[in-house]
C-alpha cells in the first residue's frame, strides 16, 4: 500500500475530495457520465482469497470477515438470513464489520495484498480521462478501502475518481489505528446502507428542469441486484455475464448489455461516444445475446 495512503488512514482522513459528484461533474459538459459498482464489477472474484466466499457478499469484505472477523461460517449464515429477508443487507454488513477488531490500516494492507482489479479497467479509466468521461464509483462498501485499492492498483491518478459509498469513523474514545477502534458510517438510512439511485437522480432532475441544455448519456456497470435501483436511473446498464442481474433486467425491462470484462465496456462506450452505435441498438444486441446464451445453456443440459 502506498505510504501516503497509509498515513492518511491512520490520521482518520481519506486521500480524496469529499465533495459529492453533483453538480461538479457537469462543469465540463461531458457527453457521457459513467457510474459503476466496485466489488465484483471492477474487482475480480477469482483473486487470491484465503477462503471460499458466498456470491451474496463481495470478495473484499469476505476476505476481511473470514480472516479478521467472526469467520466464514457466521458470514455465510448472515448471507442466508439476508436472502431469506430475515435481516437487511445493512444490518448483516454492520455485524460483519463489527466482528473485525483489527486496526483499520492493517485491514487495508490485507486487502491490498489479496485483491486484484479487472486488468482492462485501467485502460478504460485512462481512456475516460482523455475523453472527459467522468467515472463515479457507487458502492455499498467503504470509501477508504475502495480508494486505497484503486490507488494501489491503478496509480495516483485514481485519486480523481469520485466515490460515493459508506464511510468509516472512529469509535468513541478510540482511533482507527487502534484495535476495535473503527466502525461503519452508513451513507443513508436505506436497507442497503447506500441507495445508489440517490446519487444519480439529481442528474436526471437537473436536465428535466433544463430541457434546452445538452444532456449527457448516463451509463452504469454492475453485477448484483443492489445495482438495480441505480440502473433504472441511467440510459444503459452493463450487466456482468453469468450473474442474476441479467435476468432481473430482462424481467424489469431495463435496457442492458452483457459484459465479461472492461475491454468490452471500453469498446461499447467508445462506439456510443463516437456515434457508431445508439443506446437502443446496444440494448437490443445485448438482449439478443443474453437470449442466445440462455438457449445454449438449456441445449447443453
Structural write-up:
With 301 residues, the protein is of the alpha/beta class. The chain is 44% helix and 14% strand. The protein has twelve helices and seven strands. It has a seven-stranded mixed sheet, sandwiched between helices. Strand 5 (217-222), helix 9 (228-231) and strand 6 form a beta-alpha-beta unit. Helix 2 (59-68) packs across helix 5 and helix 6 runs parallel beside helix 11 (262-274). Residues 1-20 and 46-57 have low confidence and may be disordered.
Uncertain stretches: 1-20, 46-57
Largest sheet: 7 strands, mixed
Kindly report the spatial arrangement of strands forming the biggest sheet: 4-3-2-1-5-6-7
Overall spatial form: globular
Helix content: 40-55%
Set out the fold topology.
Layout: H1 3-10, E1 32-36, H2 59-68, H3 72-83, H4 89-98, H5 104-114, H6 121-130, E2 135-142, H7 143-154, E3 162-170, E4 182-185, H8 197-208, E5 217-222, H9 228-231, E6 236-240, H10 244-252, E7 256-259, H11 262-274, H12 279-300
Parallel strand pairs: 1-2, 1-5, 2-3, 5-6, 6-7
Antiparallel strand pairs: 3-4
Helix pairs in contact: 2-5, 6-11
